[in-house]
Design goal:
heterodimer, A: alpha+beta, five-stranded antiparallel sheet, 5 helices, globular, B: alpha+beta, four-stranded antiparallel sheet, three-stranded antiparallel sheet
C-alpha cells in the first residue's frame, strides 16, 4: 500500500516536506483519501478467494485513484471498490438495473469500462470499451452520465 | 468459452434441480442488509475454473467444499438454462454433491469474452436467491452421521 501511495504522491509532485498552499493541501487531502479508499479494498483479504491471489499492482491502484479523482465528489463517494486478482474494479449502480464498472489491470493499457442495462433479469444492452488511455476519463464520465438518466 | 478440461463431466442436470454456490468473497453480497447478490459470485476465471464454475446440490455440501464462505446463494437449473446463454449444468461423476456450470464465458479473457462474462454473471446473479448472507459452517463429521 505504501508503494502505491508513494507512487501517487510522486506523480502529483507532492512530498511530506513540500511547502504547499491551501488549494494544493485540499487536493493532497483528497488524493490521500482516495488512495486510502482504493488501497484498503485492494488489500482486504476478505475480498479475495484465497490468500495467495494476486493483489492489484501499484500502477493499477494509482490508475483507479486517478479515475476517481476525475469524477464528481458524489460519484467518488458512491463507488463500490471490487478488487479482482491483479485488478481493481470501480463499480457504480443505479438501482438494480444499470451498472458501470471501470477496471484497471496490471498492464499499462488495461483500463477498460463496462456498462450494462438489465430488464426483467436479462442484460439487454452491454459493452466493454477496452484499452482506454489511462489519462482519458471521457468514456467513464459519459457512462456515469448515462447511469444517472 | 473457456472450459478447458472435461474430466468427470457427467450428464446434464435436469431443470427441476436447485444448485447452491458459496459466496467466495465478502462483497459477493452487498447492501446494508447484504440482500443483493453481486455478479462477482458467478464470474468465472479461466485460469482457476478450468472445467466450469462449481455448484453443489445442498447448502451443506457447498459449505463443506468452501468452508471459508461469506454466505450461500441458490438458483434453479431451469432458470440458468432459460437465460438462453447456452449454459449447461452437468453432474460431476466423481462427486454426487457437486456439479459444474459449463460454457460460461471467462472474465480473464479478451474484451469481447470479458464483457459477455460480466453480462452473464449479472443474469445468473439476478436469477438467484440468498440462502444465507453470513458464513455457513461446514457440517461436522458427527452431524453428517446423525443425518444419515
Amino acid at each position: 500500500m505504501s508503494t502505491a501511495m508513494a507512487e501517487a504522491f510522486r506523480r502529483e509532485g507532492i512530498s511530506a516536506t513540500s511547502v504547499i498552499n491551501t488549494a494544493e493541501q485540499i487536493r493532497f487531502a483528497g488524493i490521500y483519501r482516495l488512495v486510502n479508499k482504493v488501497a484498503d479494498a485492494a488489500f482486504d483479504s476478505d475480498l479475495y478467494e484465497s490468500v495467495g491471489e494476486e493483489r492489484p499492482s501499484p500502477s493499477a491502484i494509482v490508475a483507479a485513484v486517478e479515475a476517481l479523482a476525475s469524477v464528481s465528489f458524489q460519484e467518488a463517494n458512491n463507488v463500490q471498490i471490487e478488487p479482482y486478482p491483479g485488478e481493481v474494479g470501480l463499480v457504480w449502480k443505479s438501482g438494480r438495473n444499470k451498472r458501470v464498472k471501470a477496471m484497471f489491470g496490471p498492464e499499462p493499457h488495461s483500463y477498460s469500462v463496462y456498462y450494462e442495462q438489465m430488464v426483467n433479469g436479462h442484460v439487454v444492452d452491454h459493452h466493454l470499451e477496452p484499452h482506454i488511455e489511462p489519462s482519458n476519463h471521457d468514456y467513464l464520465k459519459q457512462r456515469l452520465a448515462w447511469l444517472r438518466t | 468459452m473457456c472450459d478447458e478440461e472435461s474430466h468427470d463431466i457427467g450428464e446434464i442436470v435436469p431443470d427441476d434441480h436447485i444448485v447452491f454456490r458459496a459466496c467466495m468473497v465478502k462483497n459477493s453480497l452487498s447492501g446494508e442488509n447484504r440482500d443483493f447478490i453481486e455478479p462477482i459470485t458467478f464470474q468465472k476465471q479461466g485460469k482457476k475454473h478450468k472445467d466450469g464454475l462449481s455448484v453443489a446440490f445442498s447448502a451443506s455440501a457447498c459449505a463443506k467444499n468452501c468452508p471459508r464462505n461469506y454466505g450461500i446463494v441458490r438458483t434453479s437449473v431451469g432458470a440458468i438454462r432459460r437465460l438462453n446463454r447456452n449454459l449447461e449444468v452437468r453432474f460431476d461423476t466423481a462427486d454426487p454433491d457437486h456439479a459444474l456450470i459449463r460454457n460460461l464465458p471467462c472474465i480473464d479473457r479478451e474484451a469481447a469474452e470479458k464483457g459477455l462474462a460480466l453480462a452473464v454473471a449479472s443474469e445468473i446473479a439476478a436469477a438467484s436467491e440468498i440462502v444465507s448472507s453470513s458464513r455457513v459452517e461446514a457440517p461436522t463429521p458427527n452431524a453428517a452421521q446423525n443425518t444419515e
